[in-house]
Amino acid sequence: MPSKALPPITMEAVYAAPGYLFRRMQQIAVSIFMEECKAFDLTPVQYAALIAIHTHPGIDATRLSAVIAFDRSTLGSVIERLQAKDLVERKPAPEDKRIKLLYLTKQGAVILRDIIPVVERAQARMLEPLKPAERKALMGLMTQLVDLNNEASRVPLRAEDALEHLGKAG
Amino acid sequence: MPSKALPPITMEAVYAAPGYLFRRMQQIAVSIFMEECKAFDLTPVQYAALIAIHTHPGIDATRLSAVIAFDRSTLGSVIERLQAKDLVERKPAPEDKRIKLLYLTKQGAVILRDIIPVVERAQARMLEPLKPAERKALMGLMTQLVDLNNEASRVPLRAEDALEHLGKAG
DNA sequence: TGTTGATTGACAGTATACTTACGATCTAGG
DNA sequence: CCTAGATCGTAAGTATACTGTCAATCAACA
After folding, report:
1. Beta bridge pairs of residue A42
2. Where in the sequence is the domain holding B35, given as residue range(s)?
3. Which regions of chain A are under pLDDT 50?
4. Does A61 map to a domain?
5. Cβ contact A66:A156 at 8 Å
6. Contacts of B23 in chain A (CB under 8 A)
7. Among the four residues A119, A125, B43, B72, which has the most C-beta atoms within 10 Å?
8. What is the pTM for the complete model shown?
């Protein structure tokens, strides 16, 4: 019997593929974030790190990488940049010489407070072209998909598990 | 009158934000792509470049960057790597000494043909956790959103406009 | 107790992704 | 024709994002 005909190779197929749409949307999201937050000189990842350190003072780099779903290797340089800007400080843990604990500086807390409404505006702008009901539907589907695909990309720990040792409930 | 109370700063707010979900989904998508295509040693961007060069033989780097929504600067190194793997060749354009035209090599065409079904499987895996109707809805919304946000990130030319000089209709 | 095994932060290496800038070249207006 | 501006590829610089590996340290078990 004849083999099935191969579909033609077109850019249209690429443009309709999930991978392309996710990559493109990530580009757009970063671009909007950077534009809105220009005055703060903070990247999306640096922002996420500040939030997590604020929420979990005294967290170490490995657990932070789990909380913000960010590679442990790269996180080192992110922290360095936040340290260079005096937004974050690292203190050696007395009970474990391997670990360095992370804290926001006063300046870091101030910047975080000031940038939050700006980030909210950026987040809103990303979805602005859609109607309210569509925004809600999209966020629901994305939340589901990211959650169900969680193990597909290398995140060493689930965020909740990562924080058990801190004795924090939320 | 009293100022509105600030919402509390939580990681939950970050996890529900569009920017976080888009970044996370992009990580997952790349991870699934790389896992499926391990044997071919091709990245998602390299794959998109091969498709575009196949679809538009003799395209130059600047137009290619518009077609695959990829930064012009970075594309240089992507092409270098494809050239090093003998998948792509560059020929100087006789009528314009600035331009180098891009073509697939025979080996590039073979790899492209072989990798396409593997990429399809990767694309399917990204959406697998969702029900068919949900997949369709998500892709519809993402297509809309990327399309309507197109100018938000710096893509120098719309893909269609970029190709006018080639005298190609599609 | 003493050594195996796991964990932590750091580093090297590769590949996006973006910003500017720059020389070579082309094109259009005068 | 000839110069002002645009475009081409390239490069330098910054910041993710991932793969590995490594020494120092810790924890747990024989």
Report:
1. none
2. 14-166
3. 156, 167-170
4. yes
5. yes
6. 26, 29-30, 44, 69
7. A119
8. 0.91
